[in-house]
Specification:
This protein is an all-beta fold. It has one helix at about 10, and strands at about 35-40, 45, 80-85, 90-95, 100-105, 110-115, 120-125, 135-140, 145, 150-155, 165-170, 175-180, 185-190, 195-200, 205-210, 220, 225-230, 235-240, 250-255, 260-265, 270-275. A hairpin with a 5-residue loop joins strand 1 and strand 2. It starts with 7 loop residues before the first helix and ends in a 7-residue tail after the last strand.
């Protein structure tokens, strides 16, 4: 130990013996922590116990309680969308980045129906108001309509040139509305598997939209920072809401009041605005 630093390599490994000790301190065994105790930053022992008072061993973590009623494990990718039937409290639909959609029931772990046919992520699902049909929208640009009673594919609706951002149903019928990444909005009659109208005017992906609760108007929001209000029958663009004092960045979500008079919109600019649907004025 007392050899010069430049001689250490010549001596190889260096060992300590009792004669190298400078001072010996005697420690009582009672001062040492038990094997199942941990030391805090100040050297004090920390007694680790579970929530029920049981002492746990060193390195064992506390497991949080799982209070879920049901666990569905059919997907192999990230979950993007969940929809619950408005008429059956146990029926759930889920869509994922694994290009799959599933119908399953809470409490029935052995039952699931796969919504087959999509070739890209299933990112939007919606049950019709009467619970008879389910619409599944995918980034493959396709909307599929499923008959809930028979679990059969009723029809496939196409037309948009980009992925489907969202799907919504008319409040009193089987008209389905979908917004696309290609800046358009499409409407079909699901009973007749027929195209009804295409709403064009947005300058970027149509990120949100819906029918008003009275079914007379359509509101859509886009990544172009505008809200557009449409006549569903004629396809006429009634109002375009944009510029000060409205959003300065793309819209991400919207909801409409139950009396069909106001639209509330959220944006990537971290603000929320209220718009009068009749006048197009920002509140």
């Amino acid at each position: 130990m007392n050899a010069p630093a430049n001689d250490e390599e010549d001596h190889g490994e260096v060992f300590l013996d009792e004669t190298d000790a400078l001072h010996v301190i005697t420690i009582d065994d009672q001062d040492l922590p038990e094997a199942d105790e941990e030391l805090g930053s100040d050297g004090e022992a920390i007694d680790i116990r579970d929530a029920d008072g049981e002492q746990r061993s060193d390195g064992e973590s506390m497991d949080e309680a799982d209070d879920s009623m049901h666990i569905f494990t059919g997907h192999t990718g990230e979950l993007y969308t969940v929809a619950c039937s408005p008429t059956d409290g146990t029926l759930v639909a889920t869509g994922s980045g694994d290009d799959k959609g599933f119908l399953w029931r809470i409490g029935e772990g052995d039952w699931a129906f796969q919504l087959q046919g999509h070739e890209n992520s299933v990112c939007s699902l919606a049950f019709s108001t009467d619970g008879q049909l389910l619409a599944s929208g995918s980034l493959d640009g396709i909307v599929q309509i499923w008959d809930i009673n028979s679990c059969n594919l009723k029809c496939t609706l196409d037309g948009p040139g980009g992925g489907i951002e969202w799907v919504r149903w008319h409040p009193r019928g089987h008209l389905v509305l979908a917004g696309s990444e290609d800046s358009t909005v499409w409407m079909w009659n699901a009973d007749k598997s027929s195209f009804l109208n295409m709403f064009s005017g947005h300058g970027s992906s149509v990120t949100c939209g819906d029918f008003t609760p009275d079914g007379k108007t359509i509101c859509t929001g886009s990544d172009d920072a505008t809200l557009r209000i449409w006549n569903p029958r004629s396809g006429e663009n009634i109002h375009v809401v944009r510029g000060h004092p409205y959003h300065t960045d793309g819209l991400t979500c919207l909801t409409i009041t139950s009396d069909s008079t106001l639209a509330l919109t959220g944006s990537k600019d971290s603000s929320v605005h209220i718009v009068n649907i009749t006048t197009g004025k920002v509140g």
